[in-house]
TrEMBL record:
GO terms for molecular function: ATP binding; nicotinate-nucleotide adenylyltransferase activity. It comes from Yoonia litorea. Keywords: ATP-binding, NAD, Nucleotide-binding, Nucleotidyltransferase, Pyridine nucleotide biosynthesis, Transferase. It comes from the Bacteria. It catalyses: nicotinate beta-D-ribonucleotide + ATP + H(+) = deamido-NAD(+) + diphosphate. This is Probable nicotinate-nucleotide adenylyltransferase. Pfam families: CTP_transf_like. Its EC number is 2.7.7.18. The gene is nadD. Catalyzes the reversible adenylation of nicotinate mononucleotide (NaMN) to nicotinic acid adenine dinucleotide (NaAD). One of its GO terms (biological process) is NAD+ biosynthetic process. Belongs to the NadD family. Pathway: Cofactor biosynthesis; NAD(+) biosynthesis; deamido-NAD(+) from nicotinate D-ribonucleotide: step 1/1. Residues 15-194 form the Cytidyltransferase-like domain.
Length: 197
């Protein structure tokens, strides 16, 4: 288990959660885009012990952590198993625990547009939207369903333009930005289906 990552007061830290089962170049791609477009000082990969919305459990955490660290080589990105360390299972619990441990750090939740489409199914999703700014990165095929999602409709007045996305971490929640980036179509599901994991 890795130790808690370091962050200085006033820093803007992006949180990218997922099972990373397995991690792939698409994760690296959106991480670099998030750092640049959302004005993040740091980005933490939160490699989850398990996803409550998925029936089948992922590969062992130690295996996914090893693969993630080998895949994501960037001085401002830290691969963590922080949720196993904190004992949290849901994103809202993790965010609450991190805000308590790092009261002077500004967190931004980062997710792919595919997650925004079903965000209203997440536990305490409104609390997440109203607690931390949210940066959404479009992946191929997810743009329309994400823009029409329940979360996008309810919080439509809190959306900032892609041009202003670099100030996201300095805004009070609710605030979110939806950016389009040239995307790879890599997916963990496809990699597992090909038997490459």
């Amino acid at each position: 288990m890795s130790k808690m990552p370091h962050a200085r007061a006033g820093q803007v830290v992006g949180l990218l959660g997922g099972s990373f089962d397995p991690p792939h170049s698409g994760h690296v791609h959106i991480s670099k885009a998030a750092l640049k477009r959302f004005g993040l000082d740091r980005l933490w990969w939160l490699v989850t012990p398990g996803n409550p919305l998925k029936a089948r459990g992922p590969a062992p955490l130690a295996e996914r952590m090893r693969a993630a660290k080998a895949m994501m080589q960037h001085p401002r990105v830290t691969v963590t198993d922080i949720e196993a360390h904190l004992g949290t299972r849901y994103t809202a619990q993790t965010i609450a625990a991190l805000r308590q441990r790092y009261p002077a750090v500004r967190f931004v939740w980062v997710m792919g547009a595919d997650n925004l489409s079903q965000f209203h199914r997440w536990q305490d999703w409104r609390w997440i939207m109203e607690t931390v700014p949210v940066g959404v990165i479009a992946r191929p095929g997810d743009r329309i369903s994400a823009r029409l999602s329940k979360a996008a409709r309810i919080y439509r007045d809190d959306r900032i333009t892609g041009r202003a996305s670099h100030i996201l971490g300095h805004l009070e929640a609710p605030a979110w930005s939806f950016i389009n980036v040239p995307m790879t179509d890599q997916s963990s599901t496809a990699i597992r289906a090909r038997g490459e994991w």
